[in-house]
Amino acid sequence: MDTKLRRVGILTSGGDAPGMNAAIRAVVRSCQRNGIVPIGIRRGFAGLIRSDTEVMDARSVNGITHHGGTVLYTARCEEFKTEEGIQAAAKACRYLGLDAVLAIGGDGTFHGLRALSRQGVNVIGVPATIDNDIGCSHYTIGFDTAANTAIEAIDKLADTMQSHERVSVVEVMGRHAGHLAVYVGLAVGATSILIPESEFDFERDVIEQIREGRERGKRHHLIIVAEGIGRCDEIVARVTEETGIETRVSILGYIQRGGSPSARDRVMASRMGHFAVEQLVHGAESQIVCYRDSQLIAVPVETALTMTKSLDMYMHKVAYDISI
Ligand code: F6P
Prior knowledge:
There is one protein chain. With 324 residues, the protein is of the alpha/beta class. It is built from eleven helices and eleven strands. The chain has helices at residues 20-33, 44-49, 83-96, 107-118, 143-164, 179-188, 202-215, 232-243, 263-281, 301-304, 313-321; strands at 7-12, 37-41, 53-55, 100-105, 123-127, 167-172, 192-194, 221-226, 247-251, 287-292, 295-300. Strands 3-2-1-4-5-10-11 form a seven-stranded mixed beta sheet, with helices on both faces. It has a four-stranded parallel beta sheet with strand order 7-8-6-9, with helices on both faces. A hairpin with a 2-residue loop joins strand 10 and strand 11. Helix 1 (20-33) runs parallel beside helix 9 (263-281), helix 5 (143-164) packs across helix 6 and helix 6 packs parallel to helix 11. The longest helix has 22 residues, at 143-164. The chain is elongated. 6-O-phosphono-beta-D-fructofuranose binds at residues 15, 76, 106, 129-131, 173-175, 227, 257.
């Protein structure tokens, strides 16, 4: 196939997300199919600055689809946020002879890509974060697996909390976004879901919910708290004091970022990785792969970073309506 691309750098950056490996595999194999040499860059932009790379081929991505994490390692790189760091990364791209840099990650990663693109480097981004907080894409790799991991953990918690007739306060990840909290909350039948996107009245939305639930015979209550709300210890203290019911906190934390990716994440990651390389082959310049209205499209990085998406408040309402 006739393509001007010879070498494409591939990196994963920011928080890892289950499905990143499936995306790496798809990218490497799609590169090979198009006669492009895939250059793996270790530890994200930090590795790019140091030209820490390895030439990859179909065999280097054997049997990685079902593993969580990322075989390329990842990092949050403070140096890359400085002008010198960006210049050094652009210089490394020229030194390595990269015709494009393909990065798999979240919002911070895409800001990094935009900085590189402003230095004249061709880039393409693939959205991957368990937070699902990328404005331009309705789906991000890793969200489904993280949700399933959280649900599995909460189901286990529910067994013990139910036996003791307690209230459980569970914090789920999501940084400043409540996508994971709402989705998980609906799936586990939460009594209340507290998210940063929506104001809440603690008395009405937590305490009254628990009291009313008790009156209706509900013996165990789950309060899902998005990471962006936090303050779980305060919540536990207040619930205990105001309801008199024993209350315990569980912060699910990093467990949500690990584990074998779900079918949805493997498939989305494979499709997105393949699509990203196809875009490059067809001459795309500095784009982000986005999943919108059930299809993959490419959006210029400058535009993509101005796009916003709102949380599904209807899902939040459904969870509330059927909560007790
Ligand atoms: O973006 C994914 C995420 O797990 C967020 O939910 C969380 O706020 C953050 O990363 C934690 O980051 P770090 O891995 O740097 O502690």
